[in-house]
Amino acid sequence: MSITNVALIGGTGTLGAPVLKALKASEFNVYVINRQTSKSVYPRTQVITVPDDLNVDEVAQALREQEIDALIITIAGSHVDSQKKLIDAALKSGVKRVMPAEFGSCDSADDKTNKMLPLMKGKKDVRDYLLEVQKKERKGAGKLTWTSLITGHFFDYGLTCGLLKFDVKGRKAHILDGGNIKFSGSNLDFIGQAVIKILEKPRETENKLLYVHSHHVTQLEVLEALEKATGDKFERLDQNSEEELKIVRPKMLNGDSEAREEVVAVWGVIASDWKEKEGFANTMLGLEEEDLEDAIRKVVAEL
């Protein structure tokens, strides 16, 4: 299997933008999929315009016309129906590889995680759909394949918005369960490179759920690096994860979006260690962990 033409949908998002940047710097021929009424603009980028409702036949025709080999989906993972339409279009058009909107902080293949975070069930639903689709025969084309990538917390982005439980501007650190729990996180540019590596190794990554990280750290290690980079002492606020989840999870289930973000933040620290996990793919993809202090210095400089 060879991949030449790659299409990305969601190219202006938090993750989509760095993935698009990585794709444009690669050897692949890159297209961005844009809905008809979207205001997004992609300078010096080939654009495939599709209906707002992602009509399967019309999207398939557009993908077929450009002979798209791989479709990368970086829309919100909660958009399950939209992803299924895109997968159906990929199947119909002869696309070889789909990467669904997996990514993210938590492990959608973990039953306890799916119980804790219904949001993850949507990602599992999409992956289960791909498992069914991969069985289907196609005239004149091989079977559709997929790769799901789980990255842990978006590390550099997460430091700017509290996702890692640090308020960098306010110099506060919310430390969970003593702060010595190892967790996996990935810088956005690193995730972009992981996507490229997957497309460059289509056989090795075919129909697999893969885990990567650029950092395998504890909150206390992050705190030490933050204090070194800023020259300031952070106020330490200790939290018990179990007690915090008891407070915020009921609010999340009642539709509170801030509470959902807090559950993701906590769970992405206490239950997201990929180092010894089956499917951990750093070595196979040729990806190396990145320097923690360098990453934090860049975030502090930008803030």
UniProtKB/TrEMBL annotation:
Keywords: NADP, Oxidoreductase. One of its GO terms (molecular function) is oxidoreductase activity. This is NmrA-like domain-containing protein. The keyword ATP-binding does not apply. Residues 5-133 form the NmrA-like domain.
